[in-house]
Amino acid sequence: MLTAARLGATALAGLLLAGSAAAPALADTPAPSPVTPPAALYGKGDPTYDGVWRQSLALTALASAHVVPAASAVDWLTGQQCADGGWPSFRAATTAACDPKTEDSNATSVAVQALTALGGHQDAVAKGVGWLKANQNTDGTWAYNPGSPGDANSTGLAAAALTAAHIDPATVAKAGGNAWNGLSGFQLGCTAPTARGAFAYQPAPDGTLAANDLASAQAALAAAGGALPVTTTDRLDAAPAALACPAGDTSRTVPHAQSAEAAAAYLVAQLGANGQHLMLTTPGAQPAPDLNATSWAVLALVRAGHPHQAAAAADWLAGNGYTWAAKGKNGTDPSAAATLLLVAQAAKLDPYNFGGTNLVQLLLDAGPAAAKTPAAAASAASANPDGTKAPGSGITEADDNGGFSPIWLVGIGLVVGIGGGLLISINRRRQAAAAAAAPSGDDAAAGGDGQS
Q: From what superkingdom does this record's organism come (predicted)?
């Protein structure tokens, strides 16, 4: 069983192996004092590393559930934006000018998607898009922090933000390399011996690519023309087609027209090989279910037109997501709760009874009182007042959650819930906060699985 201390050490090891320029402070550097989150922010944990990220996901998910959030919650997010249009992970003193080195593409990308979903924030969205365009690398990629080599997750998130803002990523280029060119540099093509169609986080120093499941899921959503929240009217009855590699094909890259389908085929294979979830393989730790990567895989598959292939993974999340979303050291993890709410909406499951959990109410309770909630929210709360406390390990009936197959529970008590933001590929500087917010081994034994 992983302890919080071990998770912190392995997270740092992963950053060092990746050569991250945005790694958390080393042991001989004093950790920053914890920041008390403002009342307008969702979640009770220190927002230093994930404030904008979790607020943006929460607002996007609530908008998809037809909730009108508190004006203070939206104002907090817009108030975090810097004069040049970018967002940092968290900006404590909004009266002071931003340090450009603290602005990051991940926070900016999800903020743009949140404000687009909410509507009425065209100026902030336009400035955010302008920042993304200005900070694109010459190869078409985006890095977490400007000036660093690009990575698949940041590039996928940026492309999704452009899509949300109704801008074709193919038209956003720097020195001839557009967003799709940049994304293609991370995808394993026909020269790869295995895992064709997957995305790597970044190339190794020798240029080789190693499949990364979270990178594959986030990049696949963008490649499929998706953004948050995920909706689609397209449904393909056939399973996604694996990348076709005729004999003698030496193509290292995957054409954009085939990118999403090839990545979807890889994700379906990975889900099937692991009991309908993806695995977290943090260096130095035992492999464990990765709820965050699994969630993004569901979103990508739905957007790519394969909701049938995503259904079993969505059911697995309903049966195993409660501890991840609701049982961190600081209570509800708004990033996790919002991600599951986005999954429920995309997979057409019941967000008011997602494996026994009322995800809408869980997220509402984690932030300022909403300005308006739909009638369905009040009805669900009245029918099941303990919905936010029900264990996610409950087996759903065949007619629950939109009629998907019964959920089976895997690994209760085997894996610690580590909250949002562990993997380097989402938000590398949030890792210290994620490790600090992780429940202990005893907490995990009492509640079940949880991953970032």
A: Bacteria
Look at residue 278 and tell me if it is in a domain. Answer: yes
Tally of structural domains, the chain: 1
Q: Is the pLDDT of residue 29 over 80?
A: no
264: helix, strand or coil: helix
Burial category of 50 from C-beta neighbours within 10 Å (exposed 0-12, middle 13-18, buried 19 and up): buried
pTM, two decimals, is 0.82
Per the listing, tokens 């090989």 go with 273
* 292 phi, psi to nearest 5 deg: -70, -50
In a domain, 345, yes or no: yes
Residue 389, pLDDT score: 54
Q: Is 164 within the bounds of a domain?
A: yes
Q: Say which residue, 355 or 443, is predicted with more confidence.
A: 355
- State which residues form the domain around 162: 4-23+40-236+254-447
Mean pLDDT of 137-161: 97
What is the helix, strand, coil percentage profile of the chain, to 5?
A: 45, 5, 50
Mark 206-241 as b/e (b = at least 16 C-beta within 10 Å): eeebebbbbbbbbbbbbbbbbbbbbeeeeeeeeebe
pLDDT (tens digit per residue) in 377-410 = 878 877 776 666 544 433 333 334 433 333 333 3
Task: Tell me if 35 is assigned to some domain.
Answer: no
Q: Are 384 and 390 in contact (CB under 8 A)?
A: yes
Q: How confident is the model at residue 447 (pLDDT cuts 50, 70, 90)?
A: very low
CATH number at residue 407: 1.50.10
- Return the closest-CA partner of residue 240 out of 272, 204, 202: 272
Say how many C-beta atoms besides its own lie within 10 A of residue 374's C-beta: 14
Residue with tokens 């392995």: 10
CA dist 9 → 13, 285, 305, 399 (Å): 6, 10, 39, 44
Residues 296/317, Cβ–Cβ less than 8 Å: no
Residue 122 clears pLDDT 70, i.e. is over it: yes
